[in-house]
Amino acid sequence: MSLERFISQAISPWMKSGPDPDGDIVISTRIRLARNLEHYPFPIIASEESSQTLLHYVSRELAQRKYDSIGALELIKMDDLSPNEKRMLVEKHLISPYLADKSKHGAVLLNENESVSIMINEEDHIRLQCLFRGFQLSEGLVLSNGLDDWIEEKVTYAFDEYRGYLTSCPTNVGTGMRASVMMHLPALVMTKQLNRILPAINQLGLVVRGIYGEGSETLGNLFQISNQMTLGKSEEDMVEDLRGVVMQLIQQERAAREKLLRASRIQMEDKVYRSFGILANSRVMDSKEAAKRLSDVRLGIDMDLIQGVSGNILNELMILTQPGFLQQYAESTLAPNERDIRRAALIRERLMLENE
Questions:
Q1: 268 and 305 part of one domain
Q2: Which residue segment(s) compose the domain that 55 sits in?
Q3: Confidence tier at 232 by pLDDT (50, 70, 90)
Q4: Last residue of a domain, one of 256, 279, 310
Q5: PANTHER family annotated for this entry (predicted)?
Q6: Which of 206, 238, 256 corresponds to the end of one domain?
Q7: pTM of this structure
Q8: Mean pLDDT, rounded, for 280-296
Q9: I want to staple 158 with a disulfide (CB 3.0 to 4.6 A). Which of 166, 264, 319, 349 is the partner?
Q10: Could you tell me the sign of the dihedral formed by the alpha carbons of 132, 55, 106, 227, in that order?
């Protein structure tokens, strides 16, 4: 398979089209809702039979139904997928590691452009998420609330007038909502300002995580900023709190980039072009170095230091160079050292496409 065809099939359509507000810094926006159904045991204590019954019920009510602009939803059962196929869905942020590895009779409903994912039998009966390019919190909240109401036309949620939506984990009780924004903050890292900013963000009831959420490692200067509180405020207020912090981070990142250019333009050019050269010529590349070099190149593109290279390169290669996609492209299981060789080759091939 050619790399162009592999990319077209591997990258979710929502990542390649549509508006991209503040896309030089904000990679994506996600709204996630956790919901459970009345009269069914929560997944963490449910039997195999109960989980299977729940899956059958929810999929019967929602699969192939159409909602406004997102189109119909296709059901994908985890039991029907290979370990690597599940891994790729995790790498594309379409399902959680928990759904891939630990759920009983788990499944996901996906729309055609993969901007909407409804996980079934994850930690909760339903985990609905909406994904957008760039900084689009308001749009995400509108769509997720609309989908939530649409689902509730067919099922009855476990809800308490005092506590709100009831969830498996107490930290999700209330609204059950997690709003998150993926940001590329290399200048704040380079100027060591982020270490000072992070404690202040935590004090505001927000949390900073790696690219795959809770417990994941920070790679490529990518940070996921999300609300930590789900109880005591409305969804709208929580989103506004997050919006205010993200807007400040955008301003501070841009100011840090301008400062770096004024103070050390030649050194910045040297840094980003060295990383570009290493990516274009290396024969072995582990995931951490790839993320670091790709971050440098993306920064160089956004600061107009590197010309003629697509700004989507970070988004694409951060996914394509993950283990699942490397093995899919190779059409074989790869040992770690083989993945490092294949990763370097894929990056070289991707960069060559820019010159065609």
A1: yes
A2: 2-256
A3: confident
A4: 256
A5: ARGININE KINASE 1-RELATED, ARGININE OR CREATINE KINASE
A6: 256
A7: 0.92
A8: 95
A9: 166
A10: positive
Tell me what pLDDT residue 48 has. 94
Q: Are residues 50 and 171 in the same domain?
A: yes
Q: Is the predicted pLDDT of residue 206 greater than 80, yes or no?
A: yes
Q: Is residue 229 domain-shared with residue 96, that is, in the same domain?
A: yes
Annotated binding-site positions: 28-32, 93, 127, 178-182, 209-214
Does 208 share its domain with 314? Answer: no
**170 and 307 co-located in one domain:** no
Q: Residues 74-133: pLDDT tens digits?
A: 999 999 999 999 999 999 999 999 999 999 999 999 999 999 999 999 999 999 999 999
